[in-house]
Specification:
Length: 157
């Protein structure tokens, strides 16, 4: 008989283990990156929602919207109140008393920073604020800062 000329085809156990190890490492890195991205998006979304409510308060003040809750009382402006304990932010109209119009809450694992301004008041018809404000939103190891200038300009950084 002649010599065995068959070639053996297939992978060795070591080659298969190396490939599966690389797949496992890449999967773990991908999952970690996805989790970090997801957290960043939740923080950005929350900061954007707060900035939108501030913009809404300014818009209401500029357009001099009069809600029914004020009756015949004159409106002095619109206010956004921040609660660092409940993580809520509330849009209110101020006409003698303060009447809540909208209440929102931050997403889970996102909080207001302790040094955040607790109230931003937009003056009627001018849209200016009584004092510049800084609102800090923390979450997932990152921070977003919302600033309101004395002229009512809102920026998120």
């Amino acid at each position: 008989m002649k010599g065995d000329n068959r070639s053996v085809k297939g992978f060795t156990l070591i080659e298969i283990l190396v490939v599966f190890s690389l797949i496992g490492i890449l999967t773990a890195l991908g999952f970690a990156s996805y989790s970090a991205f997801n957290g960043e998006q939740a923080l950005s979304s929350s900061a954007s929602d707060v900035a939108t409510m501030l913009s809404s308060a300014k818009s209401h003040a500029l357009t001099q919207v009069v809600p029914n809750s004020c009756g015949t009382n004159s409106i002095t402006g619109y206010q956004v109140s921040i609660s660092t304990t409940t993580q809520q932010y509330i849009l209110s109209v101020v006409c003698g008393s303060s009447y809540a119009l909208t209440t929102n809450k931050l997403q889970s694992q996102v909080t207001f920073g302790g040094s955040s301004t607790t109230s931003v008041f937009f003056n009627m018809s001018t849209g200016t604020v009584t004092a510049p404000a800084t609102i800090i939103v923390n979450g997932y190891g990152k921070t977003k800062t919302i600033r309101v200038s004395s002229t009512g300009i809102i920026s998120v950084q």
